[in-house]
Amino acid sequence: MGRRRIPAILAALILLGAGSLPAGAADIPPHVDPEAAPVEYDGATLLNRYAKGLDYVLARDAAGIEPLLKQAALAHIPEELRGTAEVFFSSSRESAILIPAIEAALEDAENLLAEALVDDSLEASQKAGQKLSDAYGELEVMEEKAGDTGQWWQVDRAGEGSALDTAYREVENKLLQIRNLLDMMGDVKTSLVEQAEAIIDDDLLSTRLTLSVEPDAAFVGETVEFEGRLTSKGEPLEGRELRVMLEGSPASKVVTGSGGYYRGELELPYEYTPEKSLKVLYLPAGEDLGNYLGSSSPTATIDVLFYQAGLELEMPHEAYPGREFMLQGSFDYGADPAPASRDVYIYWQEETIEKEVEGPDFSRGIEVAGDVSPGRYRLTLYAPPRERYAPVRADTTIEVVTQKPVLEADLPGVVFLPSSHTISGQAYSELGPVADGEVKVTLGEWETTARTLEDGTFEANLDTGMSLMLVGAEQIKVSLAPTEPWHSGANLTGRLMVINPINIAGLALAVLIPSVFGLRSLVRNLRIKKKLRQVARPDAPGAPVGVQTPAPSAAVEKPAAKGAPRTVLLGLYREVLRLVEAATSLAMGSSHTLREFCREAGPGLGPLAPYFQEFTLMIEKILYSPRKPGEAEAEKGRQLKQQMLKGVRDEGN
User: Fold this and answer.
1) Residue of 291, 259, 264 lying closest to 280 (CA atoms)
2) CB atoms < 10 A from the CB of 378, how many?
3) Beta-strand pair 318-319/392-400
4) Mapping DSSP to helix (H, G, I), strand (E, B) and coil, where does residue 495 land?
5) Which run of H or E residues covers position 218?
6) Cα(567)–Cα(573) distance, rounded to whole angstroms?
7) How far apart are CA 410 and CA 35, in angstroms?
8) Coil, helix or strand for 33?
């Protein structure tokens, strides 16, 4: 049986436009750094990412999907969908690799068939079939994960025409385009196999397709007309079904009529790419199998027209939690006519704000949640396409901060113990007065709180009680804790003089009384000595027999303090404290606690240190616990004082 050399007519057509961009793919941006890509905010945004990934599949661009796959692990999406999104983009990447591999295998099969290398052509077709099976498997995974995502976001409950519904329908449409593309490549593979098998048994006739399109430029949504003719060896082929391919994907079908001529119309989809490619494909079927070779028309390019707009956004550089900021925008259509109105979607903090804009300029107040943490946040504004108007998107960032208020207060220079003081002041910032904020005033161990009024003013009454300190400098602190989320806290500190007149008076008496008694004793002893000297004089009459000069009196103990046990103990401790200060040359400062002074004075007291330590612990219990001391404790205090006095006298002797 004779064999005829098969011309390579199918080389450019049967491969379905390998390397050409599908609808929506011409505007795919250059590969971006995934860490710099915007995060996802809601279901519509995630589904738009899915659609963008499918655009890369149709564009045979696996590298373009890599940033989307990396973003799926980093983007702000529900944790339950993170794995779903990763699998979807992973299958998309594999599909973008498989489709050009299938096309390359089919091209090899067609070229081998044209050279009458039938066995090699069949082997290449088998290779294409294996990869085609893998591509169908990846497509089923993408369809499943897209369905899971739509179910999670409850797309069936979203309103028709909503951002979520529109995004999901776009994903479904692009998945259908991929399935139609795979089906078409399956038909090509089947046709090549059948042609190769037919060549073994008989000769095949070549075919030729022509194509013209009118007009060659049209707006989206408008209709273009196309026509051509199918012939074989110059003879028309009538009643043959032809497939119309738009951007490498099936768009419609036509049938040749009388003389092999065909004619059709095609509405340009609302896909805003600068141009579209159109071609017509003939695949032998029925009685043509075994008689004719398939063929494709030349590619016709259609310039796609649509209106574009620039979008500028203006808003403050900073925003505050719990407050509103104003967003202003302006559409610039250049020489193109501006629409009467336009829908705008604002994506902010995982919230979608819808707004209808009339005219080119618009403004909108945006509320910042009160519990948002300070930091930089992305705001996205998206105007979806409307008929001849292409979609517009603008992204910007705004920094959320808190305002530190100014805190003013009238602080006293001197505080007497015990007493009551009124601390007044005001808290305000550039955002206005700080209302209903908590103000805390702290002076040593005393503390009080107050709240600011609507005008930011406050008054806090600080009551001071008794203390062991005499006089010294002390720090006073005023702190503010606002309830308004846009204000941060503030502090104000100062130093003042604290004077305890009661303790000072007690100390003065404690020093004066022993001095008076000592002076009286000294005067009495001097008088006795004077009398003795007078008696010892030679010219003085002799002293009466049996009369002895009285010896100097021993030190007379001061009567024990009287009153309530607590009062007695405090008085005794003050006397012991003065004794310790004299013995150690140490002075108890206003910042000392009782226990701190006891530790510092211990080394200088020697064997008396345990008595002073015991007395100090007893006084701490009296001052800082609700228990009231009894007469037994008062007696113990007298004993400790006597032991301290005795020890000091022994040291002096």
Assistant:
1) 264
2) 15
3) parallel
4) strand
5) strand 217-219
6) 10
7) 52
8) coil
Where helices occur in 410-475 by DSSP H, the ranges are none
Q: Are 300 and 278 in contact (CB under 8 A)?
A: yes
Q: Which amino acid is at 460?
A: A
Tally helices (H) and strands (E) across the chain.
10, 28
Q: What single DSSP character describes residue 607?
A: G
pLDDT one-digit tens code per residue, 555-578? 333 444 457 888 888 889 889 988
Average pLDDT over residues 295-311: 93
Q: What is the SS3 assignment for 322? A: coil
Is the pLDDT at 532 greater than 90? The verdict is no
Name the least confident of 17-26, 125-134, 316-325: 17-26
Nearest to 638 by CA among 611, 609, 610: 611
% of residues, the chain, pLDDT over 70: 84
3-state SS assignment for residue 210: coil
Q: For residue 567, what are its two tokens? A: 């009062």
Mean pLDDT is lowest, of 74-78, 206-210, 378-382, 508-512, for 74-78
- Mapping DSSP onto H, E and C, the string for 142-170 reads HHHHHHHHHHHCCHHHCCCCCHHHHHHHH
CA 400, distance to chain mean position in Å, is 11
Cα 498 off chain centre by: 48
pLDDT at 523: 59
**For residue 522, what pLDDT band results from cuts at 50, 70 and 90?**
low
Q: Which 3-state string (H, E, C) describes 362-396? A: EEEEEECCCCCCCEEEEEEEEECCECCECCEEEEE
Low-confidence winner among 212-221, 328-337, 603-612 (lowest mean pLDDT): 603-612
pLDDT for position 398: 92
CA atoms in the 13 A half-sphere facing the CB of 450: 19
Residue 408 dihedral angles phi and psi, to the nearest 5°: -120, 145
Beta-carbon contacts of 144 under 8 Å, excluding residues fewer than 6 positions away, are none
Exposed e or buried b for every residue in 561-570, given b needs 16+ CB within 10 A?
beeebbebbb
Do residues 407 and 480 lie in contact, with contact meaning Cβ atoms separated by under 8 Å?
A: yes
Question: Are 84 and 46 within 8 A, CB to CB?
Answer: no
User: What is the four-CA torsion angle of 81, 385, 272, 270, rounded to 10 degrees?
Assistant: 90
As a whole number of angstroms, the distance between CA 114 and CA 134 comes to 27
Question: So what's the pLDDT on residue 40?
Answer: 43
CA dihedral 588, 590, 592, 594 (to 10 degrees): 70
Non-local CB neighbours of 457 within 8 Å, separated by 6+ positions = 424, 425, 426, 433
Q: CA 520 from chain center: how many Å?
A: 82
* pLDDT on residue 496: 87
Which two three-digit tokens encode residue 515? 């001095």
Closest CA to 587 of 502, 415, 471: 471
* Whether the predicted pLDDT of 378 surpasses 70: yes
352 secondary structure, DSSP code: E
Average pLDDT over residues 357-362: 85
Res 472: pLDDT: 80
Q: The tokens of 233 are what?
A: 């060896």
Q: Is 400 helix (H, G, I), strand (E, B) or coil?
A: strand
- Report how far apart, in Å, the C-alpha atoms of 210 and of each of 236, 256, 497 are: 12, 12, 105
3-state secondary structure labels for all residues of 545-575: CCCCCCCCCCCCCCCCCCCCHHHHHHHHHHH
Residue 100 in tokens: 């050009």
Residue 375 tokens, joined: 């930091």
Could you tell me which of 284, 244, 249 has the C-alpha nearest to residue 263?
A: 244
